[in-house]
Structure formats: C-alpha cells, structure tokens
Amino acid sequence: MTTSLHEAVEKLYYLRDHYYDSTSSQSSQNEKWDLVKKEMIMVVEKIKSLGLTDVADVTSTIHPSIPQYLLGRAHNVMPEYDCEAQNYLSSAVKLNPSYVEAWNELGECFWKGGDTASAKNCFTCALEKCRNKVSLRNLSIVLRQLKVADTEERKKLLFEGLSLAKEAVQLDPSDGKSWLILGNAYFSVAFYSTHSDGYIHKALAAYAQSEKYEMNKRNFNTADLCFNKAMALFHDEKYQEALENLERSQKFEPDWELSRFKYDSTLKFLLNMKEMVALKGKLKPRKLNSFLKSINSKDLGPYKTNSTCKRVFLQDLVVGTNKNKYIVVKVVASVSYDGGSPLACCVCDKPDFAAIVTIYRLSQDYGLTIGDSLLIPEPQLQTIHVSLKGQVINFPCVRVDSPQNILVNGHNLQPTQMASMFIKFSSA
C-alpha cells in the first residue's frame, strides 16, 4: 500500500519538473501550477481516505510517520512555503527521529519559508543519522545562503559548502542534481579567488557532468542547469554559449521571466559594446584626440621607472596574456549591464582603434569616468565573437580579473573600491 502512495507522490514531482515535456510551450506558469496543485489535492485526499493518518492508531501495520511524511512531501511540491507541509513533516520526525527523508523534506520546507537556520538544523540532523547525498547537497546550498556580516566567515561557509557538494557527488557519481549543486558551489567560490584558479572552469565541468546524467535520468528541472551554466559562461566571457544555454533554459521553462530577462540584457550588453567600439564611444574626433594627448607620465605611476614592463598599444596586443607589457588607455564610454558585474567600458589609445575592457570584483559603488586614464599590466586579450539570429557581434576585449593591479589616473584602487562578486543561482 505504501509503495503505491509513494509512487503517487513522486508522480507529482515528475509532473512539476517535466510539465513542458508533454505540454505546449505556450502554457503559462499559472496553468502549470494550477494543474500541479489540483493533482496534489487529489493525492492528499487519497492518502487521507485510507485512514492512515491517525497517529494514535496502534493497530496499524504502517508506521504513523510514513503517511505524515507523504502528506508533507505532497504539500511541499508547490513552489511557495506551505505551513501544512511543515506541520506534517514536523510530525513525521517527532514520530520517527531517524527518518532521514522526512528531515530532508522538512529542511526544504523551512528553506522555502526563508528560515535557513532551521533548514540547516534539519539537514544536519539527517546527516547525523546517515551520510546521504540529499542532505549533503542541500546543506551545501543553505551554507551558501546564510547571512553573515564578515567576509572571511562567508568565504569559510562557501568552501564548507563546496566540500559537502564534493562528498555528495562521491556518494553517487551518476546523480545529475549533485553535479549541478557542485557546479554552483565551484561557481560561488570562484568570486573569492582569481580567474586563474580555475573555479569557473571546474564549475563548467561539473555542469557538463550534470547534463550527461540528466539526459539519462531526467530527475530534476533542466532549466535550472541551463540557466546556471549560462551564468558561469557569461562570467567566463563565453557569450555565445551563454546565450545558447539561456535559450535552452527558456525551452524547458517558457514562462520563466528571469531567464528571458538575462537573455535580453546579455544581448543588449553585447550590442552596446559592439556599438561603442565601432563609434569610439561616440566621441567627436577633436574630443577623442584631446583625451589621448592628455596621457602623460603621471598616469604611469610606478611603471614610469619599471624597466621590466614595456608599454604597447591596443592594436599591438596578441590574444592571451601579454607578459611584461602594459597598456595606458583613455575611457571613452561606459557600457552598463543590468546584472551588475562586470564593469565594462570602451577605451582608446589611438584615434583609429578602440576596445572593450571588462573589470571584475569592483564595488557596485565605484565606476570609471569618461576621460579617466587606465593602466593595465599584462593585459589579457580575446576577441569576442557572437553570431545569433542573423546578428554578428565582434570586438576586441581586455579582461581585468584582479583590479588591485590596475592604475586609474596613476593611482591604485582603494580596498573600498573593490569587492567580491556575488551571484544569484536558480534554485540551488
């Protein structure tokens, strides 16, 4: 009997995660959740109709915690917090304190309600009973979301979360969702390290593993995977692949506004950068020449007497890291991005050549001004190329991952002008 009830509850989750597999992509989110709720009510009524919910019934052969858990999990299928789910699941763990699945479900319920401290306690309790992948990856998520004032404490929590996500994958290397959570954990710690540490690339490798096993099992919402992978690709400046993954995300969840917004804002960002490079920041030739002539020895700071580094011009750069070289450019336009980081600007060092500079880890309160001189040591050059829906976007781009190494008007940035970046994931 309990087997059929478990199957009925799991069908709810399959419907939730795979609604658009068999339904027109024109269906709205409201239509989806109306159907899921309707099915949820039917499952709840079915469980209740069997007379298994009386916790005082000592004659039942089914442990009373099981129907309480199933009722709680059924209610928990909805995206918003459900107090009935919490009540049923709380009852389940009281009746059976060793019920790992109930602890995990209760933790997810608290998490939906924004009570991360209680969610953390639930997953910790479950792990005390048994080291399992669900508790490990959920605790990894919660640790990343705990609010702490101290930057070092936050960094510590992120690396603890990474360790837990790794353990979850080790317990079951074929679980696509565990790989997704590991990818998110790598992506989180990437913003507390340099780009050369490779955490974004490790995140992308984990997402690739998640895709590999997700294609076989279809056991969770693929839209989340495509969206989070797109965010990692964006910060790796692989814009073509980022846009393609955002498109895929929308196919799995056609009514998802965040995914559509990110797609539109990314494409707008790229088109604006292309335009600024083509038009040299829209500056008149006389104004541009005036800016370029104003570059002087004061803009060089310590590089004025540095014999190991040689100044070169933007058009002399080669793709990759230009060792023992630096550029001094003038900011001729800023290019805003609705997602915040990176700070992007169009720069010139000659009247006939422009490029984009993207700077990461800057405080949101800090920005560059048109006319600022920018010195970048060992500049990393790449050519951005995007071809999508008949539009071709090309422009040279210099990436600055460590702003503490650059000079603005001959001076280093202050610590308050730099900050670790934060990223919002979908679901996990």
From TrEMBL:
InterPro entries membership: TPR-like_helical_dom_sf, TPR_rpt, TTC5_OB, TTC5_OB_sf
Domain of life from the UniProt record: Eukaryota
Listed transmembrane segments: none
Gene3D superfamilies recorded: 2.40.50.550, Tetratricopeptide repeat domain
PANTHER family registered for this protein in UniProt: CELL DIVISION CYCLE 16,23,27, CELL DIVISION CYCLE PROTEIN 27 HOMOLOG
Family note: Belongs to the APC3/CDC27 family.
Protein name stated in the entry: Cell division cycle protein 27 homolog
